[in-house]
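Quick one - inputs below.
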Amino acid sequence: MLFDSGIDYYSFSNPLIYLLSEFSNLIFCFLFIFVFTLLKKINSREAIFWVFLFVMAFFINIFINENQFPDIGGYLRCVRDIRDNFFFDELGCQIIQSGGGENLTLYSFKRGLPAIIYSIIPMPSISTFASIGLINKLYLFFLYIFLKPKLVDRKNLLILGIILILPSMLLYSSLGLRDNLIFCTQVLLLFSIIKRRLFFSTILLVILSAIKIQNGLVFSFLYIGIFIFQADKNLKIFFLYCFLVILSMLAMGDILLATINYFKLAFLSEDNAISSISSYSPFTSVFELIVISPLSFIEGMIRPFPQSISTLVFLLESIVQITIIFWLLRVNYKRMIINPQFLIVLLTFVIGIVLNDLVIENDFTYIRYKYTFASMFIIYLLAYKNSSQQIKKI
Amino acid sequence: MDTLIKYFHEIKSNKKSIIISVVIFLFLGFIFVINETPKYSISIAVNQNNEETQGINSNNIVSLALGQSSSNASKFYYDLNEALFSMDVTKSYEEKYNGIQRFFGGFYNEETKEYNQIWNISNRLSFIKFSLLGVDYNPIPNLYLLNNFIRGTISVSYDEFADLIYISSLTDSPEQIKKLISDLITETDNYFKTLEKNQINERINFLTKELSSISSLSQRDAISRILQNQLLKKSLVSTNELYKIKIIRGIEVSEYPIQPNVMFLILLFGMFGFFLIVGYHTFNFVRNEFSWDSSSD
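Output:
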């Protein structure tokens, strides 16, 4: 809980302070692994694997600075704010604002809520970006503990292990950014909705929407489909639900297009990728969106296309993800395509990928948003595979 | 669960060593703090001069399309950042204020009339790296080093809520750095002036020609207003007044040093001492008691 109120953050340019702070945090994280090992929640191999992941998070953060991820400092400042005053003094933790003068001001918890969630972990020091990165890794560790009984089979755990060391997961779960919280919330929300836990699902959906409204909207499709329409029970109801969704999309076409175009423009503006207004081409009809969706999904699954070594690494990751998905689908293919629960989860995953692919031009921003959906879907397939194996045994 | 209880007993029985470790590290922290150099905070708040916000560019259009008003400082922040840390500004700063002598004078050799090489850890590592690449490395004070020094000493940040840009520094030589910031602001503004001077002259020539060739009264009125604006800019460019940078709040230096944070550093050392010894006892416990073959449920 220690931080220097006189300085924004310490970086590796102050090696002694950085190392004292982060070694303490690292030992604190190791103690968690140790306690869960003693409680027999994980075995010694898994403990070593997690020690490796925490050490990786420590090293990754040494090479990260605010120039690479401009929003990285915001979460740290909000966590410090709430630990200092138990209140957000800093405006950035409560509202979002762009431009100056008579600008657009909106209440937003996209920094505030993650800060509250991060504050729950009593990390000894929050003096560097790495501190929040290690908190993120701890949340991922807790998610692993939660998922483990649902996967049981050693092969499933091996695949989960592979997902955890894929570059995007390894990177974004080690940084002080909200993406890891989005991923953890999405996975918990998915399982909560499938198990029909209305109360928990509602809370998690509210949390997800507060942290990231786009993903909250995607999951609303699943939430409404299962809790209101019971679309996971019957194929007919599932198709009726899809039909109604398409109808409502057409009815609200203008709003939908305006929202998607808004986000597309906003992402271009944020990345400074828009050199002139002429390079921006908005979507003009809902039909256009529906028609290009399948292509956009395929493109979204493959992206980023190889342009440099770093994009090549992430392309390889995409190939690994696609291979794992196909391999898992192959096992239960015939049963899955007639299961409305699988179809509605698949559609949620497709909507998530398509939506992000349509609005995000920058490959590195896209990777950041894609992994939360791709990894979540693989985890669902693993759990599905496990439950269907258990049914077979019975 | 039994092992966990045993572990807590193990930690409890080593209470004394934990306290000793914390006390030793608190003492080390104290020694570290008294050897630290006190640092003062320096900052200045600036914005883009209002005269310069007129006219619309692609970024304004994007902002407006997103439902926002055109931002003043947010765009200017990037321009200022680039200009302030540019080699052009560093060069003009060196020419006018002799920056290398001011900050690296200690390395000047009166006998050879040249600067000596600077050999610190960073430069030694760079030397090894460039040797491997087969590139000659000569760490003498020059314009590049001065530019790196400026980048490392001064930071520029933008506050989106206040819509202001802050140029700040944390330093043990407040008077020297205060002067550096002030001089750099002048030089950066001169850099902007130089960039626009020729453009303004061209615009004035063009508008003057247009004015003499147009007979419509309303068009003449419109062009004369633009011309007036350009002439105003020209008059500003030609003076010593700041043209593009507007000082909102002048340079302020903290009365007392704000760094090091004594309490933070001593507690950080103490905390490290605590976790180090707990980690050590946990490691010993794992080595002695924990079976590596145990598996989870």
